[in-house]
Write a structure and sequence with these properties.
- This protein is mostly beta strands.
- The chain has three helices and 39 strands.
- Strand 15 and strand 16 form a beta hairpin.
Amino acid sequence: MPSLQTGQQGDRWTSQVIKCSGGIMLSSDVLTRGTENPGSAEILQNYEAADQGGYERVLGFAPYDTNALTGTGAVLGVGVGLGGVLAARKNGSDNQIRYSTGSGWSSPINGTARTGSVTKVRFKFYALTTAKVVVITDGVNHALKWDGTTATTLNGTGAPANPKYAEMHLGRLFLSGYSASPSGVTISLPGDDTDFNTSGAIELFARDTVIGLKKFRETLYIFCANGIQKLTGTSSTNFALEDVTTSISCISGDTIQEVAGDILFLAPDGTRSLAATERVGDVELGLVSTEVQPLLRDVIGAYSSDSFSTCVIRKKSQYRLFVYDSNIADSSAKGFIGKLKGPDLSRLSYEWSTLKGFNAYCSDSQYVGINEVSVFGHPTDGKVYAMETANSLNGSPIQFIYRSPQITFGDPSLRKVLHRALIFTQAKGDISVTLDTILGFDNINYPQPPSITLNQTGAVSVYDTAIYDTSVYSSIQYPVFREKLNGSGFTTSFQFSGSSTGASHRIDSFQLEFAIKGRR
């Protein structure tokens, strides 16, 4: 229980410091949250848990390339690698794949038309010898290999006609998710990612329909519709598939990501950690999204597997999950951020928040040189957008909300008269945040105090002029807002909100001063 400290005015006023941490916490009752985790959040929209503590407003996005991909409909896939970004979009009957370093898209790299009703295009980058290449799959056409110059269709004898997933393991290319054998995994010859016919190439069959492939810690995992398996053995003479679990499945291969030493994926009951499941053997211990289960239930089961996409913001140990809905406008698009907590805490402990306005149909991230590039493809306008690059959503304001739980101040049966709030923040420029005091669980019959505006002026750097992670801020401001509060109640929630294209800010903590009155 948070401690209460006696004030300096004849012991009339009491204070409590609220440290902003924990992210969204919805797994316990409201009184427990407000008593034991007052710095957690009921709502945390377009804020992210910061490495140094507190909640920081997310950065937005801007076009990676100002040009749209030629064609119509969604950007079907994006992949970061080979020094730039690859993206796919249908143009007439051809699902064309183009490459950009940010200043114009190339001609289609696929010399032969890739026709058919493609819903997702996936990119797997790897280095078989010394040069890095990419294999492109779409579930309709043969896999396509590109080395930055030459495109090679993998349509030789033994190669599957329409794989969805590709992975490189033990010097072999693994292809799966093809219609002829939904449970099949076709494996190339060692050291040759184009030969699926010579002795040494092999096809194995998983327990049921393959949903995705992922190499992790020198082991290849096969995610299936009704379980997870792993490949054992080192050659075609001793390859075998062994069950990891038969009680946990993956609902979308596009949600499988490695995050700071574990594999996360979206299961029917939430986001899970594969490593925890295998190591502990307890399905509950593998669940890392317990705190946002009520929010995830609204999207799991309501959308097809192709509606989900994910990427990792590595420098922040973040897992980002995007949900595409054709009936929702860009400004209302849904998403989730899972931020791994510090090294002193459990590796299975994540702080969660939500995204709004990131309308991604596909996404990817990777380092290009020393810079991490994280991108998503838009479902209609044909553009690829780079995240972590702007203070707006392609020019539109970022709508942010942080609402605390109903804070009990140690005893929900005592009435408290609010006096003052000291709000400790960090600002990278001009900010304007609205603070609302919410009494009585926001009961419409309960008089609510007027809103307070927190303004900070004197920007030190401006986005769209400065470049994030490149420009050096002359100083980061640490304004402390001292605001008089009004109202009284048994529990109180505080909400910080706004909508702006201004600089990012962080709510670190706040101290509340109040007087204790009669018991209920």
